[in-house]
């Protein structure tokens, strides 16, 4: 099969993307997705997405992790697929799409950033020195003092494969409070490694970094792959709405591959 693919990245979280509005890639197997995401034998990416047709939304987002299995929601992926939808001719300053966790809207900003609206969050498990919540994907969030010197692969893997999470897995975020904002590093399930940035993880870390006060917060976020921003309204101790993940989403290259 000949595949015409596009490679996008959002703060270094990178994706192989295909236009599947005619269903041409419906038969792609998990093994083929895994191969395409492989950095040595394939194209290379943290995940793969398809732009699918949908009767009620501008498009449907189908997301696979680099291991080839269908993943849950991907925030950076949603922003990149939104940028891709414009390249494919879907019009408007604003698009709507449906993903594994429900409907989303996204807005193009003049500086090239894409703002993606995330689902409301109304449940957060707050444990001793950790939080656990779902922002479209499950996220364990651990505040640390010095995120730069941390061995994210080993520490993250230890949590992802512990007794509680081994079977279904979780993404694991380490977050350091900065003078203005936070620095987040993430071990991603399905990639089974640290990635340069994880949008749903950054969102989870921003929500749990908010103060007690019920109000609207804007949190600047640093990742290994560059800056993001998360805006949201905190309405109760554990409830958040109007959550927006904002940042760049860039085409790297396009090409063809025979598999
Ligand atoms: N990189 C993604 C998260 C992918 C989630 C995936 N690792 C899973 O748990 O299925 C993001 O930007 O939100």
From TrEMBL:
Annotated EC: 5.1.1.7
Q: What is its main location?
A: cytoplasm
- Give the metabolic or biological pathway: Amino-acid biosynthesis; L-lysine biosynthesis via DAP pathway; DL-2,6-diaminopimelate from LL-2,6-diaminopimelate: step 1/1
Ligand binding (substrate)? 13, 65, 75-76, 171, 188-189, 199-200
The record places the site described as Could be important to modulate the pK values of the two catalytic cysteine residues at: 139, 188
Give the Gene Ontology MF terms in alphabetical order. Answer: diaminopimelate epimerase activity
**Key word Nucleotide-binding present:** no
Kindly identify the residues recorded as the active site: 74, 198
A Pfam family cross-referenced in the UniProt record is DAP_epimerase
Alphabetized UniProt keyword annotations: Amino-acid biosynthesis, Cytoplasm, Isomerase, Lysine biosynthesis
Q: Which reaction does it catalyse?
A: (2S,6S)-2,6-diaminopimelate = meso-2,6-diaminopimelate
Its annotated compartments are: Cytoplasm
User: What's the top EC group for this one?
Assistant: isomerase
Query: Does this entry carry the keyword Cytoplasm?
Result: yes
HAMAP family per record? DAP_epimerase (MF_00197)
Subunit (UniProt): Homodimer.
Functionally, this protein is described as follows:
Catalyzes the stereoinversion of LL-2,6-diaminopimelate (L,L-DAP) to meso-diaminopimelate (meso-DAP), a precursor of L-lysine and an essential component of the bacterial peptidoglycan.
Which family is it part of?
Belongs to the diaminopimelate epimerase family.
The protein, known as? Diaminopimelate epimerase
* Organism per entry: Chitinophaga horti
């Amino acid at each position: 099969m000949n595949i015409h693919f596009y490679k996008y990245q959002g703060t270094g979280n990178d994706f192989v993307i295909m236009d599947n509005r005619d269903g041409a890639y419906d038969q792609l197997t998990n093994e083929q997705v895994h191969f395409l995401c492989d950095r040595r034998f394939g194209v290379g990416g943290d995940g793969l997405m398809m732009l699918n047709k949908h009767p009620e939304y501008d498009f449907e987002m189908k997301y696979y992790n680099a291991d080839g299995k269908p993943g849950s929601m991907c925030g950076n992926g949603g922003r990149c697929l939104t940028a891709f939808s414009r390249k494919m001719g879907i019009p408007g300053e604003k698009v709507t799409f449906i993903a594994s966790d429900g409907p989303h809207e996204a807005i193009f900003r003049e500086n090239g950033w894409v703002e993606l609206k995330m689902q409301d969050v109304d449940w957060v498990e707050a444990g001793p020195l950790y939080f656990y919540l779902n922002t479209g994907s499950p996220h364990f969030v651990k505040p640390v003092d010095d995120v730069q010197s941390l061995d994210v692969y080993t520490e993250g893997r230890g949590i992802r494969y512990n007794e509680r999470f081994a079977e279904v897995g979780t993404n694991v975020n380490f977050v350091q409070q900065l003078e203005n904002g936070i620095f987040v590093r993430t071990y991603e399930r399905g990639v089974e490694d640290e990635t340069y940035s994880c949008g749903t993880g950054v969102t989870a870390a921003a929500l749990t970094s908010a103060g007690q006060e019920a109000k609207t917060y804007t949190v600047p976020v640093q990742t290994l792959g560059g800056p993001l921003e998360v805006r949201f309204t905190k309405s109760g101790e554990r409830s958040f709405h109007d959550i927006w993940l904002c940042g760049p989403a860039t085409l790297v290259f396009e090409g063809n591959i025979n598999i």
